[in-house]
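lol forgot to send this yesterday, sorry. struct tokens for the thing we talked abt
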């Protein structure tokens, strides 16, 4: 008797789920969700996606390609359409990290984006649905040193260093030489050396090992300057 009730309850739940419109689920979601056709044209975006993509108010995105939307990330259209094609060809979908000026504040930051194929009843692919969420970096250094990987933040935990000093610190604590840092940042070797001396002074240390320990203490080892990010799309192959 109990088994019958259990089966009946499960059947009712599944029956109810089958009748829930997909758009209704997306419409009430707080994270960006959307749908694109198999021609890479936008069909639907919930409000979170509209805000995420920084779509201008009043702009009709329906039927538009990525390249036709008046936003900074539209220059990534070829990579985004390649993502669409990859998702359409796999039942597992496709994943990428998109780094661009997203959101109403247009802040350069990486976002994880996954796309999945949408099928017609005959199995034909009609397009893709996608969602996005803020991407968390993880410290590879911590991982290989057998400690719990920490999340890399894009907000500095202390405010005593200049933006340029923070860039130098991010390379120095990974044990790049002053010459290597100079090459990465297009600075002179002498400039980097002078900046490092100033950094040591602020951190109240006299050595690289002391700076590394200071950064671990205040959390700078888990920080990445936004200036080192580039607008691009990285595929998970």
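and heres what i got for the seq, position by position
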């Amino acid at each position: 008797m109990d088994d019958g009730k259990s089966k009946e309850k499960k059947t009712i739940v599944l029956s109810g789920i089958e009748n829930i419109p997909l758009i209704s689920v997306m419409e009430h979601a707080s994270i960006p969700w959307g749908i694109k056709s198999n021609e890479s044209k936008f069909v639907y975006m919930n409000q979170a996606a509209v805000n995420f993509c920084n779509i201008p108010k009043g702009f009709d995105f329906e039927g538009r390609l990525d390249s036709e939307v008046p936003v900074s990330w539209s220059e990534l259209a070829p990579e985004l359409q390649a993502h669409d094609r990859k998702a359409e060809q796999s039942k597992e979908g496709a994943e990428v990290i998109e780094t661009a000026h997203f959101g109403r504040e247009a802040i350069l930051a990486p976002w994880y984006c996954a796309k999945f194929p949408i099928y017609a009843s005959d199995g034909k692919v009609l397009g893709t649905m996608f969602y996005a969420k803020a991407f968390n970096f993880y410290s590879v250094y911590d991982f290989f040193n057998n400690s719990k990987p920490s999340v890399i933040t894009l907000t500095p935990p202390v405010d005593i260093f200049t933006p340029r000093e923070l860039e130098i610190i991010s390379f120095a604590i990974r044990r790049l030489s002053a010459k290597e840092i100079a090459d990465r940042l297009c600075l002179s070797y002498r400039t980097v050396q002078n900046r490092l001396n100033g950094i040591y002074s602020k951190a109240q240390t006299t050595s690289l090992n002391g700076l590394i320990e200071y950064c671990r203490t205040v959390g700078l080892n888990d920080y990445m300057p936004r200036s080192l990010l580039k607008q691009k799309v990285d595929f998970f192959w």
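The first strand starts at residue 33 and ends at 37. anyway ping me if u want another try
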